[in-house]
Amino acid sequence: MLYKRMIMEVEAPEQIGYDLVKFNLAESSMSDRIFGDLGIDLSNVVLLYGDHRGSPELREAIAADGNGALEIDDILVSMGAAGALFTVATALLGAGDHAIVAHPNYASNFETPRAIGAHIDYLRLSFDKRWQVDPERIADMIRPETKLVSLTSPHNPTGTEIPPAVIERIIAIVESSNAYLLLDETYRELAPEIRAPWASVSSRVISVSSLSKTYGMPGIRVGWVINTDPDLMISLLAGKEQIALGGSVIDEEIALQVLRQRETLLPEARSHAAGGFAIAKEWMANEPMLEWIEPTAGVTGFPRMVEGAGIDPARFHKNLFEETGTLVGPGHWFEQDPRHMRIGFGYPTQGDLKLGLENISRALRSSLL
Predict the structure, then answer these.
(1) 83-138 pLDDT, tens digit each
(2) How far apart are CA 267 and CA 257, in angstroms?
(3) How would you label 14-45 residue by residue, b for 16+ Cβ within 10 Å and e otherwise?
(4) Spatial separation of the C-alpha atoms in residues 279 and 56, rounded to whole Å
(5) Which of 319, 335, 315 is nearest to 327 (CA)?
(6) Domains in the chain and their CATH numbers?
(7) Which residues of the chain are under the pLDDT cut of 70?
(8) I want to staple 30 with a disulfide (CB 3.0 to 4.6 A). Which of 82, 158, 212, 216 is the partner?
(9) Quick one: which of 194, 203, 140 has its CA closest to 171?
């Protein structure tokens, strides 16, 4: 495979240096949690090779979200959602295989199939169609060699959701083909209605998630794959074993204890996300130089500069960071028009969010052609 760095990772806040970013509106997650605040005791953890699939207790806690439709062997713990996406793509695709990938998307969802040499058709979502997925376009794009349909809901970067009836239609489409539906559900618990993972509905659906976004814990690198096809799960396990053998027993113990606190931590996260969204929504309503499709879930929105406003996008990002230390996710991270930017409203404090949004407004006006 010919690996290529993803531009969003090259320009990520952790690569720039967190100490240089005063107002971080580029993140697509909740605020990073402090380990000491979680009340977790690791003194009895044995530093052995753990279960290659992931701790049975952790997998049981994840499977419990499936409303009785999931078993622990339907869960494979991974190195974050990124590790899950990589393992799925490499297990299902080879050179010449066909994949259908929603675009825009998290870059790994198309960079890995590209590196493998798969043929990719992009399911291009658009602002003008409210970033919505048309299942009949997917049906038209399916080929005999199609192995993977890759979607995200709730969607990063736009914060939109695929309605349940549309997902059900897409599942019917992949069930009648040779393909699997990969559904990145990283923001599932930040949707207005928390549903069971879609992998609990069909063996042709692969759900991926992690503790990085909703729970603000990207540092422990714990994610997971859910699928009810035993043969596919063995293939994914083989991939994981060849990449890393197993996961960190310390990270998995932290993840288990976090999920055992879900009834406390999740309402806190949802409340913080709702507060941040309310601030961003009010600001957008009073910022005539930007427009967006209002997000309905997650902690990001993807506004764009109004056409004809006369703003130079490159000058805007330069001014925004150099003059105020404010960072957003530019459109080129997602191979989109440079007028777009991803704004994360879950990571900063509400005070920093308000100041960062004010800085965006000032930078827009200082970047006119």
Answers:
(1) 999 999 999 999 999 999 999 999 899 899 999 999 999 999 999 999 999 999 99
(2) 16
(3) eeeeeeebebbbbbbbbbebeeeeeeeeeeee
(4) 41
(5) 319
(6) 7-28+263-365 (3.90.1150.10), 42-260 (3.40.640.10)
(7) none
(8) 216
(9) 203
